[in-house]
């Protein structure tokens, strides 16, 4: 079980000058191993809160409620039980579908959005590992837009300082969006810390580097294995 205990997003001004503050609480990913190579996961956002401030005229709106549910599968093609020595690699397929829970609360998406993620990892050394994700996302934002294909890509370099503490540095992008400000690119960094053998704390912050990106997104989470 992986839980984002708290996350905050501050947007850049959109084409109308509106700035949005978003708060996520306890987004939880429950991952269930079905076989040694296949897992099923359910991601649920139990609560979210959004505050939008328009500049002309000055107006503040608030929205809150239950967010989306993601249903995901993961099929490990190789590297599932062998990722310890330098040069080891792992590759998987991760199909998913995003389901709305409340189309009118401003937190949940309004439409069903399917996609596919292909995660790849390589052990560079005893301490360094590189993870690369590529994804296709069939997406519809609202009633004024139609379904279109978006592309996601990320690369993350992690370093294990010791058996408990690790850090990572990441770049991620979302491309072919219908946002008039262009594509989304963010830089992120964070840490992981093992509290116990099967309990891990993590936290980090993402910084947007393009006009369509959120300015900043700090978060803290907790993962437990049963």
Structural class: mainly beta
| Helix content estimate | under 10%
Order of helices and strands: EEEEEEEEEEEEEE
Q: Give the CATH H-level superfamily.
A: monomeric porin ompg
Per CATH, the architecture is Beta Barrel
Count of separate DSSP helical elements: 0
What is the terminal-to-terminal distance? Answer: 8 Å
Which radius of gyration do the C-alpha atoms yield? 18 Å
- At the third CATH level, what is the topology name? Porin
Identify the strand order in the major beta sheet: 1-2-3-6-7-8-9-10-11-12-13-14
| Mean pLDDT score | 92
Biggest sheet architecture = 12 strands, antiparallel, barrel
Unreliable parts = none
Oligomer: single chain
Shape: globular
Q: Strand tally, please?
A: 14
Describe this structure in words.
- This protein is mainly beta and 226 residues long.
- It has a single domain (2-224), classed as Porin, CATH 2.40.160.
- 0% of the residues lie in helices and 65% in strands.
- It is built from no helices and 14 strands.
- It has strands spanning 2-10, 19-33, 38-44, 47-55, 58-65, 69-78, 89-99, 113-123, 128-139, 148-160, 165-175, 184-196, 199-208, 216-224.
- The protein has a twelve-stranded antiparallel barrel with strand order 1-2-3-6-7-8-9-10-11-12-13-14.
- A hairpin with a 2-residue loop joins β12 and β13 (199-208).
- The mean pLDDT is 92.
């Amino acid at each position: 079980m992986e839980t984002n205990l708290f996350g905050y997003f501050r947007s850049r001004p959109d084409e109308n000058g509106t700035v949005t503050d978003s708060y996520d609480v306890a987004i939880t990913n429950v991952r269930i191993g079905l076989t040694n190579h296949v897992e099923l996961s359910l991601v649920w956002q139990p609560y979210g809160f959004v505050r939008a401030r328009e500049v002309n005229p000055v107006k503040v709106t608030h929205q809150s409620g239950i967010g989306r549910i993601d249903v995901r599968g993961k099929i490990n093609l190789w590297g599932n039980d062998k990722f310890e020595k330098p040069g080891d690699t792992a590759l998987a397929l991760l199909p998913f579908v995003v389901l709305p829970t409340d189309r009118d609360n401003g937190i949940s998406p309004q439409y069903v959005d399917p996609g596919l993620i292909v995660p790849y990892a390589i052990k560079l050394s005893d301490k360094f590992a590189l993870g690369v994700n590529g994804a296709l996302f069939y997406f519809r934002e609202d009633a004024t837009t139609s379904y279109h294909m978006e592309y996601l890509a990320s690369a993350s370099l992690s370093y294990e300082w010791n058996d408990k503490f690790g850090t990572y540095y990441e770049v991620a992008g979302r491309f072919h969006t219908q946002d008039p400000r262009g594509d989304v690119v963010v830089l992120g960094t964070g840490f992981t810390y093992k509290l116990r053998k099967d309990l891990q704390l993590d936290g980090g912050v993402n910084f947007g580097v393009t006009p369509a990106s959120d300015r900043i997104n700090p978060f803290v989470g907790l993962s437990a294995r049963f």
